[in-house]
Write a structure and sequence with these properties.
alpha/beta, Aspartate Aminotransferase, domain 2, Aspartate Aminotransferase, domain 1, four-stranded antiparallel beta sheet, 12 helices, about 40% helix, about 15% strand, binds alanine
Amino acid sequence: MTGSVIYLDNAATTWPKPEAVYRAIDTAMREYGANPGRGAYRMSVDAQRIVDDTRQEICSLFNAPDPARVIFTLNCTDALCIALKGLIKAGDRVVTGPFEHNAVARPLHSLCRSGARLATAKSTKTFAMDLDHFRELCRQDRLDYVVLSHVSNVTGSVAPVKEIAEITHERGGLLILDAAQSAGDLEIDMQELGVDVLAAPGHKGLYGPMGTGVLVLRSPLPVKPLREGGTGVRSESPEQPEEYPWRLEAGTMNLPGIAGLCAGVRFVRSVGVSAIAEHEANLAKILADGLRQIDGIALFCEPVPHTGVVSFRLDTVGVSLTGTMLDEAFGIAARSGLHCAPATHRAIGTFPEGTVRVSFGQFNTPDHAEALVAAVSEIKSTMRRGPDKG
Ligand code: ALA
């Protein structure tokens, strides 16, 4: 079944993965399947070496200062929860963007119920964050944290991180960046941009398997652990170690996942993040140019897409029906609905139905973009004719 599918849902998870990723997972399970850092014998040491190499690869990719502050997590949501719940306290004031995914919005909502305060920047008519409003919110009162999605998972719009970091730091705050849609898809230099905390999925733009993610800290912030337990170090103490990475990593690690992630990050670094970004944006442009020719279509990437994510809807065919028809009649996998980002859909005027979202990865080709345009065009004209009578 997978042979004939055109997969255009890389914002949910990238697929397929590079061959090296499948091989690395298989090798980790068969050859070094011991518990990393929990034994002095060779198998465990070899397993630990994969973990250390992966921290180093992640550090190099994001220009993070210390591999010990690369924390392995279950996914980007998990990384965000660890950071948000481990840092933000009652009374803290947080400013956030208009395009936050539930991975940011829900933990912030629950932190507000425990006494944190939240202000949300507005969006512009062209699906960007209103930077003047953001600046005003940051200056209005004390600022502890800015929590922001780098790239919207609905519109693909890119936040101006460097400028945002400067405003945040001027006001004495810290910037927590949700890089769910940008890690591996756009260059991220944490030190150059001024990102204090970065959360990223391993299974999207880094091409690792599901069940992997990372939290990266620029400085040794005192994040309160969400989980406590075995670390393989300081076992005599009843306390969770204060040192990173053990402070935030408890229990047996996902070694096969981390090995796959290591191969994924090596793939990304060998192709080059800027080459990937250019490839995805080119495909999105081909797609947007083609879709714009279809009568009655609305695109949510004005004026042009800057990343590989494009959302659209047809005037005469519902979003969910369009998605189903793409799958069943044309073998195209794209995600329709709210994309776990209701605030974004409210901001762009597509709530509650949402949009059909197409998202490209490194393994997509111009043929895939053209096939989607042809399919949407056919769906539109078929539906315009209405059902056959008699
Ligand atoms: N957050 C992922 C998406 O946008 C799952 O599809």
